[in-house]
Amino acid sequence: MANALFTSYKVLMLGSGTLADYNDDTIKAMFVDHADDTPVAATDDNIDDILSAARVPAIASCPTLGTKTTTSGTADAADSTFTSLSGDQVESLILFKDTGTESTSSLMVFFDTFASGMPLTPNGGNVTVQWNASGIFSL
Amino acid sequence: MPGIRLHHPTLRSCVYVVEDYLTPYTVPYLCGTCKETHQNKALHISLDSDGYTILAEPVYERLRRCGMAGMVVDNEVANPPPTTLGAEAAVLSENEAASIAIQHRTMRAEPVYVPLNGKAIAFSVDDAGIAILPRDTWLELKDHGGYGFDVIGVVPPLTGMRIKVVKYAGRAPEQRVTRSDGRS
């Protein structure tokens, strides 16, 4: 159990390939059902590496991060709300850049360790992810 | 049907864990709520002080496949209450990732060399055929068929190491070696 940056995202930050720009790109949050697929931070690079069945919800219904900041190398954003979330129980959360094409939508951050509430069993209502007061991730 | 309210006749104010033995996790799941490893999909159902919970339809369907585990359907809920999830800041050190304990079906006390897409994984199994690999290394190995290894558990990340310092005032105590035939 450990939260981590996807290795592929680190490579993008170092300048190889098309940059995933945290500030300007569309960054979305998605839950993952580990009974169908477990994200691999070391080798998964784009959202097409996460099986469709494991995605909760589908990409189109994933919330986009708003009010993003990168002060002092720490990525932060307003809390993210999944509206009327339905689906199987989920075990982790990922952030990814949504380009509209799965094979170019870069995976960025993987969370399976939470202060509370994980695994999450949806009840059909809204789910708000309250990002940590010290930010989402730091470089 | 956004939510379905269910009731347990006896359990109150607890997290009711119902394991679906027909749905194994793709990788054993070290659960943050139970602090233990689940091999199979384990539904975590929070019951309130009256034994009620509200589940989304896909979760209810899974519970139904599990025989309902003593839960009884009460009614549909048009507007289920919101849930809040408290995220921790991302931990970036990969050294803190949990490791996976694996066991080979036949190999014992020997080095293992697995060529994977041009880069090799090299490690050793002990005399019981057991090795502990970083989680991501195991996932890579598993993606290539597992090479005869099965997962036998998850090793939590080290949170600290205690070193015991033993000081001898004089000569260190003699070490006695006992042979297998019983003679010293």
Largest interface, by Cβ-Cβ below 8 angstroms: which chains and how many residues each? A-B, 51 and 56 residues
Give the H and E element order of chain A.
EHEEEEEEEEE
Shape of chain B: elongated
Radius of gyration of chain B: 24 Å
The helix/strand series of chain B, from N terminus to C terminus, equals: EEEEHEEEEEEHE
Relative strand content of chain A: 25-35%
**Would you identify the regions of chain B where 5 or more consecutive residues have pLDDT less than 50?**
91-96, 158-178
Describe the global form of chain A.
globular
Gap from first CA to last CA of chain A: 20 Å
Oligomeric status? heterodimer
Average of the residue pLDDT scores of chain A: 91
Descriptors for this entry?
heterodimer, A: 139 residues, mainly beta, 5-stranded antiparallel β-sheet, two-stranded antiparallel ribbon, 1 helix, 25% strand, B: 184 residues, 3-stranded antiparallel β-sheet, 2 helices, 11 strands, 10% helix, 43% strand, elongated
Secondary structure layout plus pairing:
The complex is a heterodimer of chains A (139) and B (184).
Chain A: E1 4-5, H1 7-13, E2 27-32, E3 55-56, E4 74-75, E5 80-82, E6 92-97, E7 107-111, E8 114-116, E9 127-130, E10 137-138
Antiparallel strand pairs in A: 1-7, 2-3, 2-6, 4-10, 5-9, 6-7
Chain B: E1 3-7, E2 14-30, E3 37-47, E4 52-55, H1 57-65, E5 72-77, E6 83-87, E7 99-104, E8 110-116, E9 119-125, E10 130-134, H2 135-143, E11 149-155
Antiparallel strand pairs in B: 1-4, 1-5, 2-3, 7-10, 7-11, 8-9
